[in-house]
Design a protein that fits this description.
Mean pLDDT of chain A: 78
Number of helices of chain B: 9
Largest interface: A-B, 43 and 44 residues
Largest sheet of chain B: 7 strands, antiparallel
Helix content of chain A: 55-70%
Low-confidence stretches of chain A: 71-90, 159-169
Order of helices and strands of chain B: HHHHHHHEHEEEEEEH
Strand order of the largest sheet of chain B: 1-2-3-4-7-6-5
Number of helices of chain A: 7
Helix content of chain B: 40-55%
Largest sheet of chain A: none
Oligomer: heterodimer
Structural class of chain B: alpha+beta
Radius of gyration of chain A: 17 Å
Chain lengths: 170, 266
């Protein structure tokens, strides 16, 4: 592993961390911790194996540690701090905010899998290996996560959305 | 229609285009006659696209300097300039050392139940311990050592007493490295010593000395790399030695040879 190889992975680590945590500063802290731990665990990385999967695995473990340490702080939702990327129209923007809020309401382990599938386009087997869980668990969390997200977006559950009043009805 | 029943796994895999072509066609047929399921699949696909679009902009953001810094090996980063969190991480490394120590103690307590190879495998290997100790202590500006070279007699007497065997820091002045001093550290099963040297440019080098080697397996020089830290190590009787520095392999080999020669003559 060298610096150049690592630099290439940083934007993707940041995107995933941002999607997982919402808060940009906390997300970058997590990326920083991941890079640090990667260096300290260098001996455990097998040359020729997938660096990206290894890094995502480290990030996952760090996050699990964080959640274990404090069951409160990592789940706070501060709408002001969520940096919502914007697209062309206002409707889109509102929908995006809605999606982001809905995403926050998913249990961590479901959100994680949804994001690895959607953002990283990892294969199910890769996700199972990276998170060190059985393939069946990946599939059931993916299935439940997608369904829950659909229900939240449809307004069937999660009426306590902070941005529920911003929902766009077509 | 296929003989194989359609499973939830198939539905998800259809959304993610992860099915074989033949199975994909079977799913497409199934969805044509099951509009509710078709709608669900369409929604999941839209979700996936929306998530991508939502976070795509992060990829185009400039990577903050502090993260760029961390793409380099820790020893290459100047500790004084690192943010608080980063310095805190040194404490975590130190905590890691403690865990290694406890692991070592556990290994020792359990060693009656395991073969030597088994219990050795549970311990942190010599070059790794040495490299971590190097990374933890060598960037320290104010207190890199516990006892400074000015009290070399005291240093030698103290470390020899604690390790239970005479240990002397080799003299590397001829190679441009002066002794700064030394410290006592926890190893896998007991105390180990670290001697620190520096050259005129401030480049630091540490010699890690353990007396924990219980198995007679003398080695020649071995080389390991931990991040930006290069390590030469060898085992001689009960002693294990590891020389660590962020300098290139050739230069470190030269110093390691000198250290080895002096220790042989003792």
């Amino acid at each position: 592993m060298d610096k150049a190889a690592l630099i290439v992975e940083i934007p993707r680590l940041r995107r995933y961390a941002r999607a997982m945590l919402g808060n940009p500063a906390a997300a970058d802290d997590l990326v920083q911790d991941t890079l640090e731990r990667a260096w300290s665990r260098l001996a455990l990385w097998r040359v020729g194996s997938d660096l990206r999967a290894w890094l995502f695995g480290i990030m996952h473990n760090l996050r699990v540690d964080q959640l274990r340490r404090s069951s409160v702080s990592m789940t706070s939702i501060d709408e002001e701090e969520i940096d919502v990327p914007t697209r062309a129209t206002q409707n889109d923007q509102l929908e995006m905010r809605d999606l982001e809020s809905a995403l926050r309401q998913l249990p961590d382990e479901q959100r994680e899998i949804l994001l690895l599938v959607a953002l990283e386009e990892m294969r199910y087997e890769e996700i199972a290996a990276t998170l060190n869980i059985p393939l069946g668990t990946v599939m059931s969390r993916l299935s439940r996560g997608r369904e829950r997200l659909r229900q939240i977006m449809d307004g069937r559950v999660g009426g306590n959305l902070p941005s529920a009043n911003l929902r766009v009805v077509r | 229609m296929s003989q194989h029943p359609i499973t939830e796994h198939d539905i998800q895999a259809f959304v993610d285009d992860a099915l074989s072509e033949s199975r994909r066609l079977e799913l497409a047929e199934y969805l044509e006659v099951n509009p509710d399921e078709a709608e669900r699949v369409a929604t999941y696909r839209a979700q996936k696209e929306a998530l991508k679009a939502l976070f795509q902009p992060v990829l185009d953001e400039a990577v903050p300097d502090r993260l760029q810094q961390f793409a380099s090996a820790p020893a290459a980063v100047d500790v004084r300039k690192r943010p608080f969190l980063a310095r805190w991480s040194l404490e975590r490394i130190a905590a890691g050392l403690l865990v290694a120590l406890l692991g070592g103690v556990a290994g020792w307590l359990a060693h009656g139940q395991y073969s030597p190879v088994d219990s050795l495998a549970r311990m942190s290997p010599l070059p790794r311990q040495a490299a971590v100790a190097h990374v933890v202590f060598s960037p320290d500006v104010r207190r890199p050592v516990e006892v400074r070279a000015e009290q070399e007699d005291q240093l030698v007497a103290w470390l020899s007493k604690r390790l239970g065997t005479p240990v002397h820091p080799p003299k590397l002045g001829a190679l441009g490295y002066e002794l700064i001093g030394g410290r006592l550290l926890p190893g896998n099963t007991g105390p180990v010593a670290q001697f620190m040297y520096h050259d005129v440019s401030g480049q630091r080098l540490t010699l890690y000395v353990t007396t924990e080697n219980a198995v007679s397996n003398d080695t020649g020089f071995r080389f390991a790399q931990e991040g930006a830290v290069n390590v030469f190590y060898w085992i001689d009787g009960k002693f294990g030695y590891a020389l660590s520095a962020g300098i290139d392999k050739g230069e470190l080999a030269r110093v390691a040879t000198a250290v080895y020669d002096q220790l042989e003559r003792q």
